[in-house]
Structure formats: C-alpha cells, structure tokens
UniProtKB/TrEMBL annotation:
Highest rank taxon of the organism: Bacteria
Source organism of the structure: Streptomyces phaeolivaceus
Signal peptide extent: 1-27
InterPro entries found in the cross-reference section: Bact_solute-bd_prot1 (IPR050490), SBP (IPR006059)
Name the UniProt record assigns to this protein: Sugar ABC transporter substrate-binding protein
Length: 448
C-alpha cells in the first residue's frame, strides 16, 4: 500500500515537477510564467506588500516589530502581515498556488522550498542577492542548504535562521561523576553508561523513538561515521546504508533501554524535553528551540548545550538542520518592494533582533557576532560551528517530493522495530536506501 500511495503522490506532482524546467528557463530569459500564467511584475517599488508568516502566533510580535522598522525606513511601502500557524501554512500555500491569492512574500523553509518551487510558484533570487547589500553577508552553509533544498538549480529563499541540533547535558551530574564533557562520541557513550542507575530511575541519555526520530538517527549515524555526503560520487546512490553508517546506527540504537528509559520508544521531542527537564537524565539531543525550557528547569549553570560530538579525526559532521527563510512568490505584482522587505528583514540589525527573540542562529554573519549571542551559549557555539570550518554539513534531500513521507510516515515505525530488536539496523537502512534511490532516480528523470 505504501508503494502505491507513493506512486500516486509522484504522479500528482509530475506536472508540477515539470515546472522546474520553466524555472530554469526563466534564468535564461524565458518569461517563466508562474502557475496560472501569472508571472507577476516588478511594480513601482512602492505601495503594499502582503507577507505571510509561516510561524504565526509564535513569531507574530517580533515580525510586527520588524515591519514597523521597515515602514519607518520605507514610508512609501506598507506591509500587510498575515500570521499562519506552522501546521497550516504549507496546505494554505499549496491551495493558493492552485486557486490564486498568493502573497508577495512568505516564509519558505528548507522542507517547503522544493514543493513550492516545483509548482512554479517561487521567484529565483540569485541575481537579486548578487546585486544586494546582503551579498557576501549571509551564512554560506544556510544559503547552500536552501539552494540544495530547492533542487540545486536556483536559490528560492533568503535564509533568516537555523535551528541547529544541540547536545544538552547536565554539567552538575557530569561533575559529580567525574566525567569529561561529551565533546566526542567516545566521551558521549562513556557518559551515557556511567550516568545510568536504573534503580534510581537515572539514565544517561534519552533517545528519540517517536515522531521525528529519523532525522536524529541520521545525525548520529553521519556524526559517528564521518561520511560527508548523502549521495555517492555518482549522485544516484545514497550513503545511508554504507557499512560505516550501519555500524554507527547499531551502536546508537544499542543505547535503548540500556542507558535510556523504555518510554523513549514512543517519545517525540516534547516528551523527551519534559523527561530531561524532570532532572534524572544526563543528556538530550534536541535543537536550540528548547534552550529556554532547560533554563527554567535548571537555571543557566546546571546544564550546557554544545554542537554534536566530533567523530573520526576530531571532525564534526552534522546533517543539515532546519533553515528558515523568506521567499518571493512569482505572481507578485510588486517584486521590487517585496525584495526591499526581504533585504531589510535579513539585514544585520533586523536579523539580529529576530533571532534574539527566536533563540536561533542568525543568517546574517554580522548579526551572528552581536553581544546577545554570548549570553545564550548554545546559540553562540552553534553559530561558531557553522562559520569556523569545524563542521561539515551533510545536505539532506529536502528537494525530493517523497522526502517527508520517506523520512517520517514510511520509516519511523521501522526505526522503532530496530530499537525494539524486531529488525536489524542493516535491514532498516537497506530499505530506506532503496526508497531514497528510487526517489532520486525519479527526480532526476523528471528534471530531464
């Protein structure tokens, strides 16, 4: 059933994927009309810009503050803000692509870029960025993540922030046990074992077995194996089932129930965070978003949040973390003004303001050097890891139409079987690799 459903989804987006050719042609001078034949226009650079926030409610206040700043600096442009809940955003955009009514500017993160671009809905932004005051000012790894996520042909979104993966650990528990900081994988595994005392309901680690488990497992695999590309040299075969990755997953999954709670089999991030904050667990992998929860639970001096442990040769390898950004919709009738807003929102001062509020890594390199970063150590270290050359990012194939299904619904139950001993790491990763290789082949065929 899963195979037939996936084929149906592929058939449904086949026509949309064909639009990638039109998008490429646009860069070569073709009219590149968007969905419904509406290619939009540059406009006067004045008037109204409609902006859809892809995390409405959570980020509404800070976006309204940025909009106020923008309108003061650009009195001839008015920005109309519409906040849309993250859970509803993609479906609303997809509906509007088919039926009309898209905004000028909208949130376009890595997980959405390919889908929107394949339907011909997004304006390529490479040329605008090259001529902009932002040129050379944005974090290169974030730009590359968004370009890769959109299919690699063009940049369809200007990055605003990254919500990097973090290894949180209890410094007080480490000190009491005489443990070194878990800065490499050997120290991580040693600490997980030493901090476990099941009779006292104390565990060294909490592993993600519920929703969102695949991305965390991939991060642990590539971090330990040191493999730096998701695809082999041919670009056709994934490296997920490379023997080094299989061995890494076997070791990682071996933590379950040995040094982790049994409840982890079904735990998503909210349950994991709550479990860690209850005070009996030594380490947790999550992202910057839970930092304030840990501050509330422990204060600032009983825990730390650091980048993923280093692997072979002291090198750190991480899979690409969620990068958010701002895209321009091709149907916009006021692209000049829309670009001014995107450019302003990702400028030094405004990008710093946004990410200080969000607790994430700024995309603007100057913003990443601001003093507030030092007050939130996990953000400071995450920002440094992305810019100091210490970390290699393995780009996940967000551009594949089936990526979200493959990495979630199709394989999360399979990962639970590996954790529970019903399946081997090799069986699981071979199945995952087969699905990915087929999806990659179909994507390549659609691109022609």
């Amino acid at each position: 059933m899963k195979i037939s459903n996936r084929r149906s989804r592929r058939a449904a987006v086949a026509v949309a994927l064909g639009s990638v050719l039109a998008l490429t042609a646009t860069a070569c001078g073709d009219d590149g009309s968007g969905t419904g034949g509406d290619k939009g226009s540059e406009g006067s650079g004045k008037g109204k810009v409609l902006f859809w926030d892809n995390n409405g409610g959570v980020r509404t206040d800070i976006w309204k503050e940025i909009i106020t700043d923008f309108e003061k600096a650009n009195p001839d442009i008015e920005v109309e803000y519409v906040g849309i809940a993250a859970t509803e955003y993609q479906s609303k955009v997809d509906t509007s692509i088919q039926g009309g009514g898209l905004p000028d500017v909208g949130g376009v993160g890595a997980a959405m870029a390919a889908g929107f671009a394949a339907q011909g809905a997004l304006e390529p932004l490479d040329d605008r960025l090259a001529k902009s005051s932002l040129s050379g000012k944005l974090n290169e790894s974030m730009v590359e993540s968004l370009k890769s996520a959109g299919g690699g042909e063009a940049l369809y979104s200007i990055p605003t922030s990254a919500n990097n993966g973090v290894l949180y650990y209890r410094t007080d528990l480490f000190k009491a046990a005489g443990l070194a900081d878990p800065t490499d994988w050997d120290k991580f595994y040693a600490a997980a074992e030493k901090l476990t005392d099941k009779d006292k309901n104390a565990f060294g680690y909490t592993i993600r077995g519920g929703a969102g488990s695949i991305a965390q497992a991939l991060d642990a695999m590539y971090g330990q194996s040191g493999i730096t590309s998701f695809w082999d040299a041919s670009g056709e075969k994934t490296t997920v089932n490379d023997p080094k990755n299989i061995a890494a997953l076997e070791k990682y999954v071996g933590l379950y129930k040995k040094v982790t709670p049994a409840a982890d089999l079904n735990n998503d991030f909210t349950k994991m965070v709550a479990q860690f904050d209850s005070g009996t667990i030594g380490m947790l992998n999550h992202n910057l978003g839970s930092y304030q929860d840990h501050v509330k639970a422990f204060g600032a001096d009983r825990f730390r949040g650091i980048p993923q442990p280093t692997g072979p040769g002291g090198k750190r390898v991480q899979v690409s973390n969620p990068v958010d950004g701002l895209g321009m919709f091709k149907s916009s009738k006021n692209k000049e003004a829309a670009w001014k807003f995107i450019e302003f929102a990702t400028s030094h001062e405004e990008n710093s303001k946004f990410n200080k509020s969000a607790g994430q890594v700024p995309s603007n390199n100057d913003a990443a050097k601001d003093t507030w970063i030092s007050d939130a150590e996990p953000t400071k270290l995450a920002a440094a890891a992305l810019t100091d050359g210490s970390t290699t990012i393995v780009q996940l194939p967000y551009y594949l139409p089936d990526w979200n299904t493959i990495s979630k619904a199709d394989n999360e139950p399979g990962f639970q079987k590996v954790m529970d001993g019903q399946s081997s790491a090799k069986e699981f990763l071979d199945t995952l690799a087969d699905q990915l290789n087929k999806a990659q082949a179909e994507w390549s065929e659609q691109k022609g």
